[in-house]
Amino acid sequence: MQIVLICFSTCPFSISADNLHGIPWRKHTVNDQSPFEAAGAADFNGDGKMDVFSGDSWYEAPHWTRHKVRDVLPGTNPHYYEDFADLPMDVNLDGHVDIVTCAYFSRRIAWVENPGDDATKLWIEHTIDLPGAMETGQLVDLNRDSRPDFLPNIGGAVAWYEITATAPEVTWKKHDLGNRGSGHGVGHGDVNGDGRTDIITPKGWYEQPVGADLDDWPFHPEFQLGTAGILIIGRDFDGDGDTDVMWGMGHDYGLKWLQQSIDSEGKRSWKSEQIDMTFSQVHTLHLADLDGDLEPEVITGKRVYAHETEPGATASPCVYSFHFDRENAKWTRQVIFEGQPAKFAPAKAEDRWALKDFERGSAGTGLQMDARDMDGDGDTDLICPGKSGLYWFENMRVSKAYPASFR
After folding, report:
1. Which among 337, 326, 330 is positioned nearest to 16, based on CA atoms?
2. Given pLDDT bands bounded at 50, 70 and 90, which one contains residue 400?
3. Pairing with 137, which of 41, 206, 292, 385 sits 20 to 30 Å away (CA)?
4. β-bridge mates for residue 67, sequence order
5. pLDDT reported for residue 219
6. If we measure between CA atoms, which residue out of 404, 364, 398 comes closest to residue 384?
7. Burial class (CB in 10 A: 0-12, 13-18, 19+), 83
């Protein structure tokens, strides 16, 4: 029987401002009045340029011409729109990029079909399931068939969905893992190093089975992360050969990680460390190689007004990247964006609204961001949505000007 030890530390690892070897970033506005908290980038009209989809519209590169292609209404709480994920994927394999989405108040998972012949037409939404309230989800190949599956964060349950057919119609299969690990947050990583992707929750992790039964995943209640950000990352950050866990505090201050260690007898232990406790509402984390060294950084930041009245709600919006310096055993942070606090936000939560409380041009990380080479210059840029607008951050590592094809 494996013994699991968890140690908690209130002393943060050494963190320094590195500026990621001097890489500058340039912020561009896609729509600074967009209230939607999810966005994905892909070539939606087949012209070879990277476009952006967020909420009810897609924005055509390079001038970000807006095409409204569906209706997205506010939820029962008007401060939240029913668009909690915008994940690009060619669902029906017709050669046109669609969107996989989910919603909180309507409890709906759906895919939104790109009409293809004219992507400015209304897109058709197809309901997949109504499993419960969801803040967001992620695409990850869990069944090892080289095609992404959908892993949502469902309140009160843990489940994932795979496409089992695309013709004559698209069909999805739900894999229900029960509710032992359910909570605020979900993610993935190969926790036990067996080559299979496991599911990580705030209460432990589900081990992917060896055989073909993709519904019987043993649960290991080895840690408690609290109200975690929705995307939890499992990765060997410190380079010692086992998978660590990184998460943010979705409704409080803090970015944290669990260091995994395995002793000579195969006993696993976890040590909890703080990374950065200076910003709050850390809902989403994203892995991407920003500096071209083939080691991805973690991009995260503030979800502006995750709730209007909670720790740090009116503090400065921010977008950061983090990298673990293995040689010096410390985390380094780069500032990609820092804005101004909402100094004159109304006292009552019901009177607060991000687009008027924060200065125009404020960027955060929303619920689901994206990392793509938006301008074709060979490096990775960032798409950051949120209640205070939709922006893309140009990585200036390779080029100081747009390629001719993007002008």
Report:
1. 330
2. low
3. 292
4. 58
5. 97
6. 364
7. buried
275 in Cβ contact with 13 (< 8 Å): yes
The C-alpha atoms of residue 208 and residue 190 are separated, in whole angstroms, by: 9
314: amino acid identity, one letter? T
CB 359 within 8 A of CB 340: yes
The answer, yes or no, to whether residue 78 has pLDDT greater than 90, is yes
Residue 37 and residue 84 in contact, taking contact as beta carbons nearer than 8 Å: yes
* pLDDT 10s digits, 323-382: 999 999 999 999 999 999 999 999 999 999 999 999 999 999 999 999 999 999 999 999
pTM, two decimals, is: 0.93
Sequence-ordered strand ranges (E) for 171-317: 171-176, 186-189, 198-201, 204-206, 219-220, 231-235, 244-248, 253-262, 268-280, 286-288, 297-301
386 closest CA partner among 364, 362, 359, 369:
364
Torsional class of 19: left (φ above 0), alpha (ψ -120 to 50), beta (otherwise): left
φ and ψ of 148, to 5 deg: -65, 145
